């Protein structure tokens, strides 16, 4: 699931950057054929781009060798409390960042879908009230 979220993030970033380029280059352009090819290329590039990986030659070594050690006094721990705490944490569901991002993404999709349905209903009512012309 995490790989899919990274893919979606890369696609959205590519679409955003290239759409900004589209606005800058083709805002006042009246050549619709060039616009069409650019938009088709935009879609193809944004779907293929996340599969291209760029290897990093020199990873940052100082981030890999960090050991977090925290010293505590033995009086801090109480045997009865640590057993209960361990049992309670084992029962709690683990929340992962990828799950939070996925649920947030699904919530945005749901809101936009509901908005689309409401606009569609409004448009169909507006069309129904109108009179056809020849």
Task: Give a structural overview.
The protein starts with a helix and ends in a 5-residue tail after the last helix. It contains four helices and no strands. The protein is mostly helical and 134 residues long.
Q: Could you write a compact summary of the structure shown?
A:
The protein is mostly helical and 134 residues long.
Structural class by SSE content: mainly alpha
What's the story with the biggest beta sheet? none
Helix % is 55-70%
Low-confidence stretches: none
Count of distinct strands: 0
Provide the gyration radius in Å: 26 Å
How would the global form be characterised? flat
How is the topology of this model organized?
Layout: H1 2-26, H2 32-48, H3 79-91, H4 97-129
Helix pairs in contact: 1-2
Provide key terms for this protein.
4 helices; 134 residues; mainly alpha; 66% helix
């Amino acid at each position: 699931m995490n790989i899919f979220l990274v893919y979606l993030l890369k696609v959205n970033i590519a679409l955003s950057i290239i759409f900004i380029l589209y606005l800058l280059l083709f805002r006042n352009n009246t050549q619709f054929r060039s616009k069409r090819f650019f938009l088709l290329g935009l879609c193809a590039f944004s779907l293929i781009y996340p599969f291209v990986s760029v290897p990093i030659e020199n990873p940052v070594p100082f981030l890999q060798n960090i050991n977090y050690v925290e010293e505590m006094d033995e009086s801090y721990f109480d045997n009865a409390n640590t057993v209960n705490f361990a049992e309670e944490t084992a029962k709690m569901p683990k929340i992962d960042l990828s799950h939070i991002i996925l649920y947030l993404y699904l919530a945005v999709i749901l809101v936009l879908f509901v908005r689309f349905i409401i606009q569609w209903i409004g448009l169909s009512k507006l069309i129904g009230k109108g009179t056809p012309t020849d």
